[in-house]
Amino acid sequence: MWSEFKKFAMRGNVVDMAVGIIIGAAFGSIVKSLVADVIMPPIGLILGNVDFSSLFVVLKEGATAGPYLSLEAATKAGAVVIAYGAFINTVISFLIVAWCVFLLVRGMNRLQGKDKEAPPAAPTSKECPYCLSQVPLKATKCAFCTSDLPD
What we know:
Order of helices and strands: HHEHEHEE
Radius of gyration: 31 Å
Strand content: 5-15%
Shape: elongated
Largest sheet: 2 strands, antiparallel
Helix content: 40-55%
Number of helices: 4
Number of strands: 4
């Protein structure tokens, strides 16, 4: 059983997947910083000094009554909140990661020559000139009208 597990764990795809997960986690932290520290501040400035990470809606007051000046103050008071600003940041992070993965896969496909369209397949049938039915290309007689087919 141990040798079977060792054989499974050392297969190429498992090791590649492990490396991909580790690189993906590191890439995720870079993207999170890119969104929070580089992309969102200018967008917030354009929209009137809005910090998306601090946008929230209070559903239920906490032990200390509101209004709460920040998301941290609301959660510290025990208020039930919907932190939709954090959700917006997460969606933007996802879109950036998805775009980068798309560009990576697109680049790999170009390097491997997979982006070219395959040539159209050779025809496997022809049309009977008498009944207009599709018959195999090598047929000498139509299966539908029994006419002799020209070569």
